[in-house]
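Handout, page 2. Input:
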Amino acid sequence: MEILVNPSKQEWKSALQRPLIENKQLETTVQEIMEQVKNNGDAAVLRYSQRFDNPNVNKLEVSFAEIEAAQHSISPDLKHAIVTAIKNIQTFHERQEEIPSVTETMYGVKCWRKSVPIEKVGLYIPGGSAPLFSTILMLAIPAKIAGCKEIIVCTPESKQGGIHPAILYAAQQAGVTKIFRIGGAQAIAAMAYGTETIPQVYKIFGPGNQFVTKAKMMAAMQGIAIDMPAGPSEVMVIADDTAEPAFIAADLLSQCEHGADSQSILVTNSMTIAHKTKEEVDKQLSQLTRKELASSSLQHSKIIVFDDMNHAVELMNEYAPEHLILSVQAPFQFSKKVINAGSVFLGNYSPESAGDYASGTNHTLPTNGYAKAYSGVSLDSFVKKITFQEITQEGLQTLGPIIETMAAAEMLDAHKNAVRIRLNSIS
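Output:
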């Protein structure tokens, strides 16, 4: 990892440049896939699945028997881990439920808001280089709590065939209604448009590679809601001399192993921490099973050293990391300075992987700087907020003249008349 010392603000943009994934060929390829699936349904989905995932796939939906069999293929320890994670995720997200309350804004005028579940949601679960069964928990559990009627999952088969049993087990435990063995842009297209087998959904969730991300963005442009714009995973660690270099290195590498386009940034005010962390990264990297991916990711990862920690705070909020770890002496106090971040981890004993799996918070988070404007997935992501109001005759007599004055100023006579005709009937 490259070490930068006291870079000027003019250098920050280039120092924090995320890996570029956009190109014209990507857009052309995804556009073709989207159109083929829209026009040819199941036939196109199968053709792309055979081409990109498993050449022997011949059916799209995973049967109940396959789902049931999966529970016999995973260890008791993993089952226990999944069930424990479900409990924690459920506990955290249940607390996000909003109880409707009526507000009387003036006498005779009552307003309130109610959360209504999105009826049909589609969850995309990557399954290629790593079977991300944890993402099912992060998406299906809040969907279930919200009351979504239809929760479908699309996840690709491996090249050798089959879906990892942990994905099927997690889906069953989390309340998924249907599972389809498809991945890539074709899965997003199938959920966006619907096919003979795969139902159209109203909102699509889940991470994925550059093809999946581009397909989600294209679906959003055509009126299908998505959770958020998202790209490769990223982490930023803010550390002072109370941090543990071995811990920092492990956290940096945990992001790097997601893929070659992931990014890890360490920002510190200690040259000692910078050099010791770099040594630890090299040491731990050699022990990883996905060291080739992690090594590629390290090419665009950085260690930045500032003499002044205020510069670290400014850089942190400018970068707006997906994951932010505060390995500093007073992490809670420091956390009050955080303005832009997806999810924040306080202290030396709060690894980012806790949020990825089982602490209870959601790991589906905004990347690529979108944390400046977007939140991570929550219970709110699976509901619509509908407002209601009820106005009595007395209330309209008080509020009506206000509405008439405003409507007249905007030269909207029909708006004014909708009030006047009622006031005349009252008098």
